Structures are given as C-alpha cells and as structure tokens.
Amino acid sequence: MADSSEMTINLVVLGRPQTGKSAAGNSLLGSSDFESHRSPSSVTTCCSLGRSCRISGIIRRNGCELALHVQVLDTPSYPHSGLSKEQVRDSVSSALSHHFGKEGLHLALLILRADLPLCPDENDHTIQFIQELLGPTWRDFTAVLLTHADKAEEAGFSEEAYLHSASSTLLSLLSSVQHKYIFLDNQKSIIKEERAIILRKLLNFIRQNNYQALLLKQSKE
C-alpha cells in the first residue's frame, strides 16, 4: 500500500475439501487462475498465488478513488486426501511467508459451505489448523466466506433465516471472528456487480482492523 493512489489487499483461502476454496479465489480475482472442479479426491495439491487486474470504482480515500489490486493465495484443503496435516501446514506456512512476508496478510478467508452443517469436531480441527498458521491473533485476521449460498436460498433460507437456524457451532465461530462473514452465491459470484459487493465487504473488514496486516515470518529459503 505504499503508492497513495493504489491499494493491494493480500488474502488466503483456507478450508476443507469441496467447500469451493479455489472457486471463491477465482471469484475474488475475476479470473480462472485456480483449478476448480468436482472430484472424489482433493483437487488442490500445492499453494498458488493469483493476482487481479487493476480494479476501479471500489474504494475511495480522502475524496480520491484508489486503484485496487487483490492477491489471493489458494491452498490445499485440510484435511487432504493425499497430504498429511503437517505437509499441508508446512506448505501453506511457507507460501504465506514467501508471498506475504513483507507486506503481511490482511485476511484469511475460511471457506465453509452454507448448504452443509458445521459439526463441532470439524470446526475444532479447522480452528486449530488456522491457529497454528496465524498465531494467537488469528481472530482479528480471519473472516468466514459461506459458499453455495444460492443452494441455501433455494431451500427457502434468507441470510437472516439461515443465521437464525444455524448451529451453535457456526454461530460461536462467527462470534469469535467478530461477525466477519460473507455469503457467496456461486451462481452469481462471477458477475462484476456481485464481485464489487464482496470486495467492498472485505475492505470494510480490513478497515475495521485499521488496515493492519498480519506480519509473517519470512522463509530463509
């Protein structure tokens, strides 16, 4: 964010298999950088950084429009069908320090499916994994992205009704990250207007955190 006319936000997507991590990353970038498809095994096996083109019309500061750049780090899922927890953790940790070691990480996006229940054991393992990656201040730098919101809507749930019916596990998680969450409609997320809405929400989360970035240890490699 050194250039006063430009802003770059650094994001990482984390989550379980088939939650839509890579698809969410593509939606945020407005591209198809990351491989994303249905599969009986985990699709993403290594970390990959995607960069958006210059995005205008999203943010203004001191009366002036800033050019926004979005960087998204796609990661292998945890648990993974072909990698151990240690292999996934070490791969993500190394990629975070390599790509964001200087500027820092603005938000980790925990990807959950809105059309599937979140079980306590599943949540505990995921939170432990994020804590190991980001450290004790993980809550300040984590937001929840609920994918497949279109399927929840088809089932008759508005966002308000969905949260009213959500499990205590999910509600506790959302509370722990200061209610930083976004519903992502997988059928509409590639539309320019929908993408702009999501990016503005992410920027609002970053603004609430005083534009701080989580500084990561840089790899010696």
TrEMBL record:
UniProt keywords, alphabetically: GTP-binding, Nucleotide-binding
Molecular-function GO term, any one: GTP binding
Domain AIG1-type G: residue ranges: 6-221
Domain of life: Eukaryota
Family assignment from sequence similarity: Belongs to the TRAFAC class TrmE-Era-EngA-EngB-Septin-like GTPase superfamily. AIG1/Toc34/Toc159-like paraseptin GTPase family. IAN subfamily.
Identification of the protein by name: GTPase IMAP family member GIMD1
Natural source organism: Anhinga rufa (African darter)
